[in-house]
Amino acid sequence: xxxxxxxxxxxxxxxxxxxxxxxxxxxxxQAPDGKSDIPPTNRPSPTTNPAADGxxxxxxxxxxxxxxxxxxxxxxxGRLKADKVTRKSRLRVARIxxxxxxxxxxxxxxxxxxxxxxxxxxxHGRPKPLLRGWIHAGTAPLALAAxxxxxxxxxxxxxxxxxxxxxxxxxxxxxxxxxYHLGDWSPRTTGILRRxxxxxxxxxxxxxxxxxxxxxxxxxxxxxxxxxxxxxLVALIIHVIWITAPxxxxxxxxxxxxxxxxxxxxxxxxSPAAGPAVVVxxxxxxxxxxxxxxxxxxxxxxxxxRVFGFxxxxxxxxxxxFACHMVAIYMVIIQLQ
Length: 337
Description:
CATH architecture of the largest domain: Up-down Bundle
Keywords: Membrane, Metal-binding, Transmembrane, Transmembrane helix, Zinc
InterPro entries: AdipoR/HlyIII-related
Radius of gyration: 47 Å
Shape: elongated
Region (Disordered): 1-56
CATH topology of the largest domain: Rhopdopsin 7-helix transmembrane proteins
Oligomer: single chain
Number of helices: 9
Number of strands: 2
CATH class of the largest domain: Mainly Alpha
Protein name: HemolysinIII-like protein
Strand content: under 5%
Order of helices and strands: EEHHHHHHHHH
Binding site for Zn(2+): 181, 311, 315
Strand order of the largest sheet: 1-2
Number of domains: 2
């Protein structure tokens, strides 16, 4: 049986069908002006949300920019590697060319003079003499051997430690001086070695008086050791802070420090563990230091500037002073036994 339908008049006079009509067949009613009579709140939105569209566009742009930046980084890395390879290739080519040019020159000029030696320059830009640094380089192993002998023959832990201090200070002086004058260092390393070189002589003077002071009674011994090392600390601070101080100031402090032990020479003279011989040796060593310092300050005599100059005379003075003091310490150790 066909489905029953009924029609009822609506408020606007249009007949409306009611019954079992399928929803797919139902159509929206149209108003007389052609507009839909469905309430606006139930209409589907004809376009998407503008804010959401803008956010999506920003995300896409950020993604594109990120990819471009990554691509640029990859290209930059490639250029860096290519430049590195190019530099290495050019350096290798230059070395090969230089090698074969030198070989060709030797074949073409077999009797040509040898290339001049590399000239070493001091901190002032002047050529260093050939023996610069070698005097102290040869003295360093001798100082080590002498220090070991003194430590072995010394009686008592205190005197052994004092001899070890003397040996260490002498090794620091001669070893650092040899490295400073013989090496071809960077400006920074040269400055460090130069500072150490300037204060080492004060370390050696204090290190020398440390075992010699054992020839005196305990209160005087401790006073001399404390005073010498206190002056050394002050001189060290001055030299480290004011590395560019005038040469004459260095020499003045050096001489004052060297003769400061003269005040105790009378006590050493009458001491059973020292005596006149030890005093003469200590004074002779001090005079060697002072003579070398004067030559260093005046820069004369400068006998053979290319081989043996005024600085080498100064180094000889330090070696002679060290030798005198080492013998004096040896005599003190023997007479304390």
